[in-house]
Design a protein that fits this description.
about 750 residues, 5-stranded antiparallel beta sheet, 20 helices
Length: about 750
Amino acid sequence: MAHTDDKKRLQAAADLRRAAVERLPAAAAEPPLPQTLEETRRLLHELQVHQIELEMQNEELHRSRGEMEATLEKYTGLYDFAPIGYVTLDRSGIIISANFTIAGLLGTERSRLFGCRFGLFVASDARSFFTGFLEEVLENKGKNTCEVELVTRGNMPLFVQVEADAFGDGTECRVAFMDISERKRLEKQTVHLSSFPQLNPNPVLETDLAGRIIYHNPASLNILQNLGMDESDMRLFLPANLKELVEEWDKVREETFHCTIEIQEMSFNATIYLSPRLQVARIYLLDITERRWAENQLYLLTETASHLLSSEAPQDIIGMLCMKAMDVLDCHTFFNYLIDGESGRLRLNACAGIPEEDQRRMEWLDSCTAVSECALRNDIRNNPAALDPPQLELARSYGIIASACYPLMTHDRKVLGSLSFLSDKSRFSAENLSFMKALSNQIAIALERTQNVQNLKKAQADLELRVADRTTELAGTVNALLEEIDVRETAEEFLRVEVDERLKVVDALREKEKQLIQQNRLAAMGEMVNNIAHQWRQPLNTLAVAIQQLPLFYDSPRFNREFLLENTGKAMELIQHMSRTIDDFRNFFSIDKEITTFNVRKLIEHAAALVEPGIRNLNITITIEAEGDVLVTGYQNEYAQVLVNILSNARNELVERAVDDGLISIRVFQEGNSSVVTVTDNAGGIDEQIIDKLFDPYFTTRGPDKGSGIGLFMSKTIIEKNMSGSLTVRNSGNGAEFRIEVNSAER
């Protein structure tokens, strides 16, 4: 772009020079030559002065051009980064230019706006209006404003104030956009808030300063009608001291007061707002009936717990407590039965809401319905089996509909009695049932506590009686008492010795278990050391040869840098191979600290590689068959230890029985949610008489000098206790088959 501008400037300068030459008169084209030296000097001086003047004019032109470019850049920046969106449209609404602000408002890159029709960004229902607005501006060639809804790239509504002005010959229009979305949102919120009192589910009232009600919302009338009242009772929502509050108010500052208003069984928190600007009192009420009812419940439960826990005979105060509970539950009948210790039947302990003659009829119950393990909440009209026959007959005679019964039980589920509440309401609410359950639990705890105290006192009395009898028996003779004391001391000493011996036995068993685990690990380490010896023998021989060559060839012509580097490289490869070998064995015997998810096939290949050096020269082949990638979550090294133990046992059996072509076959597969590994050999199998003892500790068929008998025992312990799996063995074909089964890892 800059190169094109330079070419244009050079072309313009050439054209200008050509025009100047054409205007130059013919006479001036060939000026007379100076005749004397003085004229020549004077002409040269004028030319020099003229050259300086031209240079000064050129500098002035460059400076003016720089100022013009800076001014243009300044005003371009003001346009592009103005806080208001600007666009220039032609008569058809095509965008000619746009600044960054309008591009940001529309959520589109500025370069994509050029050449687009602006109407695409106007909401569909406002496009015809906006088109007419632009036509009016271009027609009248004046400034005009409007508000319109735009749609951004994410289809989000955007409300803007538009100011348009036509310029030039009326073919183009400059349009400015100001985001007024927040103002629109506030206006909408104001409209919503203005309807808030009407939609409020709680009473809202307004009075003048004389206390006359000048407004109330629909919720106020609905609440009164639900209570059986009408609009004439609206003053019940006003605080009783409203007049005093207004008189004490200084009428200069806004003030807020709070109080509680009770209307029948309902309770309200009232907030009284006094404003000098409005000259009215606004009362906002909040229904706290349920909260007050819950507070009353909590207070009653607290009071009940205090009375029950402080009473030595809680059964005597159950009636008084249930009478208070009936006020909270809004019911009029309750029954409390307690188990009679002699007969084991339910006997009436307390009740309310029925005459004495009916109480005598209900004194004893033989049914166990009342002490079922869950609360009953039934309509006894449709489900009469919820009550015992005497209770059912009584309920029908008194018009009772809802019943709720809770058993009184000890913590070990022993029945102490029951507590029932009955009401003429259709049903008890969930809150009522929760309260009754808590009350029943408190009564049961108090009864159990009293029962325990009585049992303790009885036991103490029996103990004191036995002590008295014993004292009477011992009072006759001091010698008998001393003899008994000696016997007791002897018994205590014997008991102390026995306890010490048992502790020693337990410690010995623990130490023996540790030694057993250590013995198994040491045995496996011995096997691995033997394998390391096999692994290292050949590399050590090769390394020795490479080292011995150095002094032998030192004085020969073959000893050079290339020979030295070659021998050194071979030696380092052998050393690194031996280092990796010892790392593999060291990692194998490291203690598992975390449960990990591992690939069973890869772990089997690793375990087989560990025992392979020990069978390389024994004509024994190990084959591995895997059906896909089987994953297991558990202790990887312990699982590998089990595999090594089984492989080592199979190798030993093949060697002892001198099998010519020894074969150890390992198979891995998925069976349901379990991973299964089978290890099979062709050593002839296990004697059926000893196969059940194979996993017993210290059981071995190789003799005490060749085996400890703990390898398979520890393997079974690892699989079944540490990994919740199973390890079994059976005879299969020409040998034994060990089967390891554990849960597969979740993929």
